[in-house]
Design a protein that fits this description.
It is a single chain. By secondary structure, the chain is mainly β. The chain has 1 helix and 16 strands. Strands 3, 4, 5, 6, 7, 8, 9, 10, 11, 12, 13, 14, 15 and 16 form a 14-stranded antiparallel β-sheet that branches. Strands 1-2 form a two-stranded antiparallel sheet. Strand 7 and strand 8 (145-157) form a beta hairpin. The radius of gyration is 19 Å and the shape is globular.
Amino acid sequence: MKTKSFIKIAVLSAVFFFASCSKKDSSDNYMSKDEAQSSSKIDLASDDISSIIEDQYNNINSNAFSNKNSEVAFSNCATITRIPSFGTALVDGVEVTKTIDFGTGCTLSNSNFVSGKIVITFIYQPNASSQTVNYSFVDFYHNTIKIEGNKSFTRTMTVATASSPSHPIVVMNMDLTATINGLIHHRVGTRTREIIAGYDTPNVFIDNIYSITGNWTTTHPTGTVISTITSPLQAKMSCMNTNKPLLVQGVITFSKNNRTATLDYGNGECDNLAVYTVNGNSYNIVIGN
């Protein structure tokens, strides 16, 4: 899930992970540099995949990515096919399959490079308040990472209130294997994204703000890391005019061998900085592609 969501997460420059670990409290107990780099790459891939899937679900009758006021969510360099074929009227209850084929390579608008195919399947239910979309991959690469697996995301419309219009909440269920430099990393968990501003202007993309929660476990070749969003992340699409990274607020807590570290994205300003705190020491880091 273009969907109206495009979240970008950095590859962490985390050489400092080992800096303050004593002999008694070995750095092996903490998230290593390689684990952090691999985890953040998978985060970035997961966000792009979610955006692609949601976009194509939202635009069921389109063979292109969405375009809101000339704000292209993705570069339109993919071949998109559908069963039943485009032009065929869909009836309630029919199974729909859309294949997004990036061929040998396609650069997205956030400069990430993808190739191969994403296949999504769902039952057409135009009046349903909740919809589950299954997804899988065929020789799919995100930058240099091969992504495999199949899972689903669920899109639910909330009930309108006096203070909030009906709007979608998307829960992405992840069961993915990422091969990075020949090493296999397996991730299982969920990411929940809710649009909290901008949904009442459907033809305007830049005013959207999203809140993201969730938790996941990533099994790296060197150990298992549990990631939990302990303060909701916030993504502002207006930050595309300032910096490519869109996460501007919220905290992710990492846990390995009962040792924790945090990544704090700030107070809502459109910058590309975050604060990483590990073993009692804090470091400013730059996020982005």
